[in-house]
Amino acid sequence: MPLPLPRPRNALLVRRLFPPHATVTAPYPHLAFIQSVLFVRMLPKNNWVLPMPSSKNNKTAIDKNALAEQLRAVGLRPTQQRMALAGLLFGRGKWHVTAEALYSDALAAGVNVSLATVYNALHTFTAKGLLREISIDSTRSYFDTNTDDHHHFYFEKSGQLKDIDNADVKLTRMPAAPNGLTVSRVDVVIRVDG
Are 21 and 37 in contact (CB under 8 A)? Predict the structure, then answer.
């Protein structure tokens, strides 16, 4: 159960998509380190500021109208759950996420969504070209918001991924695709002990 915060006059409000307990107020900057609650600050004209996963102070503004247009442009209806998940995904810049981690972030943000819905949304976003799926093995997949051609280091101990620029990997020889098929993409995952 979230702790109620006092609401002084200078409280920063959160849009309808996020619950009242996610409100952060200026007199409580020491609460910014809490990662279990998604803190959002209102900006003028439909903008949200979402925290980046790797930094407490680095924030990216998301225009919810632009986000809705991006979903419509690929043929998706911008439902409340899709908008909430897309805001969590694309409001953090380029990063890698598992379905379970996004589900956890969504719950912490007060988004009423099931794990199955998160999986469905991730696979739908991937099919529409908004995300890339990186399969590490038969039990673990990551979803990447960076859809440019690139490759990855996979740190086996920590389970983290790190981008490798496409120009840094050279394939000198590759087998021909089976008859009637074409190669759509080559993904290189270099596993490191770390």
Answer: yes
CB 62 within 8 A of CB 91: yes
- In the chain, DSSP finds a helix count (H) and a strand count (E) of 4, 9
Is residue 99 helix, strand or coil?
Answer: helix
What's the pLDDT score for residue 32? 40
CA distances from 125 to 29, 46, 76, 77 (A): 35, 23, 9, 12
Q: Please, which residues have CB within 8 angstroms of residue 156's CB and are 6 or more apart in sequence?
A: 191, 192, 193, 194
3-state SS class at 65: helix
Whole-number pLDDT of residue 16: 34
Q: Residue 61: what pLDDT?
A: 56
Quick one: 107 exposed, middle or buried, by C-beta within 10 A (0-12, 13-18, 19+)? middle
Rg (CA), the chain: 19
Q: What are phi and psi of 140, to 5 degrees?
A: -135, 125
Domain boundaries, the chain: 148-194
Weakly modelled stretches of the chain, pLDDT under 50: 1-59
pTM score over 0.90 = no
